[in-house]
Structures are given as structure tokens and as C-alpha cells.
């Protein structure tokens, strides 16, 4: 999966996958009796065509066979998405990982699956964007729909709006997409506001919470709990699919949010609890953005895998010394000592009250007022 590599100076470094897998292994997550580690495969063109156009798939093949070519109209060969030899196979393998996850849920082999190499939520049906070539989150959801799953909730907590996945299911009433992200006023892709509600055949199927720059754990978790549980319970999905880009972290250089490893762990725990409450535990989680590749990404996604396995890693757990040595020797970096940042993840419940002078509360209320009545919910009280 590390072949998904846009070059040494690109933020989407494959090192983050290596570091995550190595940390999870050292923590013993891969050795848990309820955990199977399985290989991702290169998704076929026919599988990719479930959500992507044939013309776009052909274009990815073409630039991957001759990297001197580019196709900027399809998002290939841009600053965000430079082309490289084998780009099709590398991208299709990430997609194949999420299809493996979907098939495992469909077959009943497992109730939960994680593809931390996935989460490519900016790819559209006919073009790549934002470091994303093939949209594995959408492919996973479509696979579930094609298998007979009647309703799916997609929860995206990446700092960037999950625009590609939302657009692919814009007019699909069986899929509810919920994206909590930094406002498009201050961050790429500049979309995803409270009044973006889905197409004419699926009004209310898209939900967006556009968070003010600087939002910390307290506001981020308050926004999550003021919107997500209520809508998930009202929609009553059979499966939850979630994207866990961890670029909302305060040390991420590409965004302007202010969350912690502890806060993102708390969000993963909340999604796991929702899956248990609403859809029999059926939950598929992907990675996504995250560009602090030593101190943030490996810890957040290791926490995610442990939570999915039903064995959360306690916050005060020491980071394995073997992993810290690996980081120092291979990458010349100093790794953190604990799986926690000792952050305060307390958040103020919406029931405590709405503060119209607070920018976070205003954006939450805008979303609630736009969407909640469509589900029979009261935007002020539910």
C-alpha cells in the first residue's frame, strides 16, 4: 500500500502507513485473537466503475503507464495529485482494501473492519482531487448497497469536507453523509456548508458542519454530539462507514483546527458506540488525511484499530520502546512517550444551552435548523 506515493516532498507520505502498521503491531493489536490482518488487492476496472467513469479510469491507466503525461482536467498531474508510474495499481489497491472490508461485513465474517490506508474522500466520479485518485469510501458504500444493505450512514471527521463521497451519493436517499470539517471559508475544498443538503431526490441526505478555524476538542466533540447521534438514530442505518482523517490535530500544518490525539480517540469511541446501539455493531472505518506522520497519525489510527477490535488502548499506555527506536533509526525523529497527550476532552452538552454569540454554536445551530426538521427532530431540543 506504500506504493501510493506522490513523491518525497508531498504531504501524503507513505511513511505514515508504515509507522501506523509498525506501532499497531508493537502494541499487540494485530495479535489479538479477534483480529485478522488481510491483504488488500488491486480493485478491477469493473469494480472501480461502480462509482467512477470508464473515461476517468482509462485516464488514470494512461498517466500511470507514461508519467510524462498529465490530464489536469481530470485532476491528474496537478500540484495536489502529481502522476507517477503505477498510479493506477497503487490507487486501486487502496480501493481494494476498502472492498475487502465491505465484503467481510457483507459475508458476516466480522462485524467491524478498518482500512487505515483508505479514506480517499476527495475523488469524484470523473476526476481526482486533494491527494485522492479513487474514492474507496464511495466504493465501499456502493458495494454494501449492491449487496442489499438498505441504509448506510457515512461519517467523515477529516478536517477537510468529504466532498467527493458526498457528491457521488448526492441524490441517493439510502445513504446519509455527515461531514464535520473546518469551514470552507478557511480551508480546501471550500465547500460543505449547512445548506448543502443533497439532491432533489434525497433532500436531507447530506449533512455538513462547517467548523470555525481554531476549534478545539471541546467544540469539536460538542459539535459531533449535537448533530451526529441524533441523525444516525433517526436514519437507522444497517451499517456505519466512517472516515478518520486526523488532520484536525493542532500540530497538522495543512489545517487550522485544534484537536488532540485524545479527542480523536474519543470520537472513534463514540462512533463505535453508535454502531453498537443502532446497527448491531456493523462498522467500517477508513483513514484519510493526517500529515504529522510521527506523533499524530500512528497513534490516532492505532487507537482506531484497537477500538474497532473492542480492546481500546488506555490513554496512559506507554508508546512501545521498540517503536520509538524504529522511528529514531529509520526516520531520525523523536517519537512521543505516551499514547495520550493528556488533553482535556470534556465537552459541553447541547442540552446545557445554545450560545448565539459563540461561532461554534452558530454553525451547529445552522446545521440543526437545516436538517433536523427533515427527520422529525427539533433543532432546539433534540
From TrEMBL:
<dbReference type="GO" id="GO:0045150">
    <property type="term" value="P:acetoin catabolic process"/>
</dbReference>
<feature type="domain" description="Histone deacetylase">
    <location>
        <begin position="10"/>
        <end position="306"/>
    </location>
</feature>
<keyword id="KW-0006">Acetoin catabolism</keyword>
<comment type="pathway">
    <text>Ketone degradation; acetoin degradation.</text>
</comment>
<comment type="similarity">
    <text>Belongs to the histone deacetylase family.</text>
</comment>
<dbReference type="InterPro" id="IPR023801">
    <property type="entry name" value="His_deacetylse_dom"/>
</dbReference>
<dbReference type="InterPro" id="IPR000286">
    <property type="entry name" value="HDACs"/>
</dbReference>
<dbReference type="GO" id="GO:0004407">
    <property type="term" value="F:histone deacetylase activity"/>
</dbReference>
<dbReference type="Pfam" id="PF00850">
    <property type="entry name" value="Hist_deacetyl"/>
</dbReference>
<protein>
    <recommendedName>
        <fullName>Acetoin utilization protein AcuC</fullName>
    </recommendedName>
</protein>
<dbReference type="InterPro" id="IPR023696">
    <property type="entry name" value="Ureohydrolase_dom_sf"/>
</dbReference>
<dbReference type="GO" id="GO:0040029">
    <property type="term" value="P:epigenetic regulation of gene expression"/>
</dbReference>
<dbReference type="InterPro" id="IPR037138">
    <property type="entry name" value="His_deacetylse_dom_sf"/>
</dbReference>
<dbReference type="InterPro" id="IPR003085">
    <property type="entry name" value="AcuC"/>
</dbReference>
